[in-house]
Amino acid sequence: MEHLPIILGALRWPEPDSTEAFLLWSVVKIAVVVGVLLTMVAYIVLVERKVSAFIQDRLGPNRVALPLIGSIPILGPFLTKLGIWQPLVDGLKSFLKEDFTPGHVRKIYFWLAPALVMIPAFLTVAVIPFGSNIGSQHMVIANLDVGILYTFGIVSLGVYGIVLAGYAANSKYPFLGGIRSSAQMISYEISMGLSVIPVFLLVGNLNLGSVIDYQARHGWLILYQPLAFIIFLVAAFAETNRLPFDMPECETELVAGYNTEYSSMKFALFFMGEYANMIASSAMMVTLFLGGWTLPGVDPAALGGVLSIFIFLAKVLALMVIFIWVRWMLPRFRYDQLMNLGWQRFIPLTLANIFVTALVLWLQARN
Amino acid sequence: MIVKREKLTFWEMLYLPAIIGGLKVTLRHFFSKKVTMQYPEEKWVVPPGYRGAPYLVKDQDDRTKCVSCQLCEFVCPPKAIRITPPGPAGTPEAGNVAKGPKEFEINMLRCIFCGFCQEVCPEEAIFLMKDYSLTGTSRAEMIYNKEKLLTLGGIHQDKIQKWKHKADEAKEQEIFPVRP
């Protein structure tokens, strides 16, 4: 007991700008971001279910009620109608289901693959500035100077999880799904990567924070680079295996693609990974093209840290709704059409876009 | 017939018209009236002629109309009906002119709601009613016995009351003395 004051004395508040403060703040930010991201994943699934139900003239989940909150007069039934508790039950269900490992799978890879899908999706969020400053802290986990390169490096890792899942399942449909996804993701990563080059030609810096500074000064980059935005958007659909490019899953052709042999929490990890990827790419688009956490015509310094975070989340959510909306709008592309679009349309277009942007910048610099 | 494939115009090849068309359709449906019927609270109106669960009926004098002829048992395609006839003892409560079933069981798990029993019944004693959601917590519970079938079936008016008249007639003429 007599040691307690000494221990408490050692637990002093770290000096600002010290390594301890940096570590402490990083841990806090990581915990909060991961928490928010997981909650968003759960609730985006609910939004998806609700939106798809409404588009199909249905009502969607509106039954799950919690014992105490459900009996609050007006609010309880309203929340139940919104299906606000559905993600809780869905999560619980994934945990309680039988985790079945078929006898014919390659065990190590079978266990490794879901994690390899999930982890890159979370890692990409690390460099995205999700708000201005709270106190002296920048609202970004890692303010890397090579931000976008890091993102593309990590995003490329995402394909391994799916390919590995296809290989580990050791049966034909997952294997086909894995092959398709590797082809698709690699081809669209090229056009995705090329499409952002003009953005960085304009900004002149690979740091994502400076991209936002540029947009705060000059207006959103979607106005300067609409073509790049559209190509990035479409490539993001392909990267996250969303309809109309959901070749790797493709229920009508491949049972469930690389998911086929998975059940319970392992399947849920794939599922969450897909949605986390969608959130990450939405966040990326918001940062690169839609002004990040800033608002047009508002001084970024005037926005409080908390408000800027909410602006950022609202923009991400809007893009997510577009992701969901498009799913119920367009039929699936055929495999050759997908490849055709990627290689023969987008890559020449992005190259032309880079060339034109560079030319304009050069002419401006000459004057 | 060979359908000639029209060449797409440049505008169409951009996919944009298709995408805009899709946006319009989905938006319209998003805000349109929902067709979901919230089942346990709202229920649909069962149309006339609907073939629901088969039940036994009584007439207005509380007499079981079934005379245990076993035609329904015979015609039942999934063999869901099982009738135990009264045997030589007869059915005294039926006025000794008709028989009634000692036991009448319908296995609702086997029943396919085809309506053959109703069609074949010469006594208009079994009808497919409007019940469509039969539930139970065990298989045994889903085998409905005579008592349950009669309770669920209720009363159907019988204008002719053939067996009642026969019994009355027999009583008057005393040609059916009950032998000791």
Question: What key attributes describe this structure?
Answer:
heterodimer; A: 367 residues; mainly alpha; B: 180 residues; alpha+beta; Alpha-Beta Plaits; 6 helices; 5 strands; 28% helix; 9% strand
Describe this structure in words.
The complex is a heterodimer of chains A (367) and B (180). Chain A is an all-alpha fold. Chain A has one domain (100-366). In chain A, 68% of the residues lie in helices and 2% in strands. Chain A has helices spanning 4-10, 19-55, 75-82, 86-96, 107-123, 147-169, 172-203, 208-218, 221-224, 226-239, 251-254, 264-289, 305-327, 335-366, and strands spanning 131-134, 137-139. In chain A, a hairpin with a 2-residue loop joins strand 1 (131-134) and strand 2. In chain A, helix 4 crosses helix 12 (264-289). Chain A is globular and about 65 Å long. The N and C termini of chain A lie far apart (75 Å). The relative contact order of chain A is 0.12. Chain B is α+β, with helices and mostly antiparallel strands and 180 residues long. The interface between A and B is medium-sized, with 11 and 14 residues.
What's a quick, concise take on this entry?
Chain A is mainly α. Chain A has helices spanning 4-10, 19-55, 75-82, 86-96, 107-123, 147-169, 172-203, 208-218, 221-224, 226-239, 251-254, 264-289, 305-327, 335-366; strands at residues 131-134, 137-139. In chain A, α2 (19-55) packs parallel to α13 (305-327).
**Broad structural category of chain A:** mainly alpha
Whole-number count of domains of chain A: 1
Sum up the overall morphology of chain B in one term.
elongated
Major sheet size, sense and barrel closure of chain A: 2 strands, antiparallel
Assign a percent range to the helix content of chain A.
55-70%
Major β-sheet strand ordering of chain A: 1-2
Mean residue pLDDT of chain B: 87
Backbone CA Rg of chain A? 23 Å
Number of strands of chain B: 5
